[in-house]
């Protein structure tokens, strides 16, 4: 009798283990649904208003529309092939999940349904290409950007996401990127800078003052980004636990210090503390803490955010003038350059209670630098290729002089931001 019981337990043990491995945690799932909604809010609302407020009146709707269409197009290509390329099986690139093949309501990723993980990661892909749009606004064809967004998400974003998060360990170098320092911010900043360089400068750039349409929209957009960023960073733990709580806290701290850091530099340079500067500082602080949000403590967040805000202000005020590239809304300087700082700072400011086993500062710092360099080179080269293909398919990437002079709102969309 005893031997039969042992045999029965032996047969049931594998099934019990499999059931344990595939168990969905309702608390984690509920949190990740909220986090996904928060990150979704960042693109067609937060970033759209932030960018729309920074641009000139005649191009406000076109600028906002680029964030909206980026979200729509990236979402489509993500579920068709992007998720497979980023999170499918494989080293250099993922495969096997085209059109989410094999994923059902019962499929589990960690402790949440994989369908929810697909949705969460899709919001990251969408905001990345939308961030890049800030460098090319006011002169890129809307049709060119639509094609660019689709191809770029597959050819540039998905591979880099795979290397950092999806299993492409050969090209990971042991990098720590909790929520998207290289994958999102450096990637988007470099891409935007390359396209801005290829498009050429806007009419009268450097000769006339290009004033923001609405500082009010800039602040409102930044506030929505700040709010959504809690899902962006804390959600990247993909669980409702202590690490997510830490990410939530340091995200808020770094954003606040980003505001302070930017305004300090702005006041030292111009004796003014502007609302546009404060809002931009918040975004810079958020960018800087993103890769470190799963490992930095409060002290690290203070330093990372303060330096991120100050660096962003210095870059926009002084450093960018050394480069003959018209990065319209400073996407490279706020996301790319500050993202590089955040990625390197990730190795420097690890809280003792979150420090990995066998951590070595030198090797981790080298890993961060390698990942940054790979992202800059791959994103830069492949973005140029994607832009040339997109331009070829749409009969040129830049609008004509008449359209640029009139403004893309009226010429392309037949609308105005304010009907007086």
Could you explain how this protein is built, in words?
69% of the residues lie in helices and 1% in strands. By secondary structure, the chain is mainly α. The chain is globular and about 60 Å long. A hairpin with a 2-residue loop joins strand 1 and strand 2. It has a single domain, classed as Ammonium transporter AmtB like domains (Ammonium transporter fold). The termini are far apart.
List keywords for this structure.
2 strands; Ammonium transporter fold; two-stranded antiparallel ribbon; 420 residues; mainly alpha
List the helices and strands and how they pair.
Blueprint: H1 2-21, H2 26-54, H3 60-87, E1 108-109, E2 112-113, H4 114-133, H5 142-166, H6 181-199, H7 215-234, H8 242-270, H9 275-289, H10 298-317, H11 331-348, H12 361-393, H13 401-406, H14 408-413
Antiparallel strand pairs: 1-2
């Amino acid at each position: 009798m005893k031997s039969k019981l042992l045999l029965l337990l032996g047969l049931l043990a594998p099934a019990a283990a499999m059931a344990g491995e595939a168990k969905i945690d309702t608390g984690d799932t509920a949190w990740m649904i909220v986090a996904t909604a928060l990150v979704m809010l960042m693109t067609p609302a937060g970033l759209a208003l932030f960018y729309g407020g920074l641009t000139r009146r005649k191009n406000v709707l076109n600028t906002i529309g680029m964030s909206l269409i980026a979200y729509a197009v990236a979402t489509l290509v993500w579920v068709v092939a992007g998720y497979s390329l980023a999170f499918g099986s494989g080293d250099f690139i993922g495969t096997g999940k085209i059109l989410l093949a094999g994923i059902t309501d019962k499929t589990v990723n960690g402790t949440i349904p994989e369908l929810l993980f697909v949705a969460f990661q899709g919001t990251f892909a969408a905001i990345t290409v939308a961030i890049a749009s800030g460098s090319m606004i006011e002169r890129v064809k809307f049709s060119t950007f639509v094609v660019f967004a689709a191809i770029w998400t597959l050819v540039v974003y998905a591979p880099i996401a795979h290397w950092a998060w999806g299993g492409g360990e050969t090209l990971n170098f042991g990098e720590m990127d909790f929520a998207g320092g290289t994958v999102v911010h450096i990637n988007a900043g470099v891409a935007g800078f390359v396209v801005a360089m290829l498009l050429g400068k806007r009419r009268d750039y450097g000769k006339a003052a290009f004033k923001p349409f609405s500082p009010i929209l800039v602040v409102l957009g930044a506030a929505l980004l700040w709010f959504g960023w809690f899902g962006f960073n804390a959600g990247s733990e993909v669980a409702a636990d202590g690490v997510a709580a830490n990410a939530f806290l340091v995200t808020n701290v770094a954003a606040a210090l980003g505001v302070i850091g930017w305004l300090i530099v702005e006041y030292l340079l111009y004796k003014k503390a502007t609302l546009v500067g404060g809002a931009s500082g918040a975004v810079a602080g958020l960018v800087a803490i993103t890769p470190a949000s799963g490992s930095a403590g409060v002290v690290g967040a203070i330093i990372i955010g303060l330096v991120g805000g100050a660096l962003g202000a210095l870059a926009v005020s002084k450093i960018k003038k050394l480069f003959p590239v018209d990065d319209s809304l400073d996407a490279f300087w706020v996301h790319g350059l500050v993202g590089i700082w955040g990625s390197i700072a990730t190795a420097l400011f690890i809280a003792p209670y979150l420090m990995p086993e066998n951590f070595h500062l030198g090797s981790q710092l080298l890993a961060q630098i390698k990942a940054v360099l790979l992202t800059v080179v791959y994103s830069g080269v492949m973005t140029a290729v994607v832009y040339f293909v997109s331009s070829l398919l749409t009969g040129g990437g830049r609008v004509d002089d008449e359209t640029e002079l009139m403004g893309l709102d009226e010429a392309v969309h037949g609308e105005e931001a304010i009907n007086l």
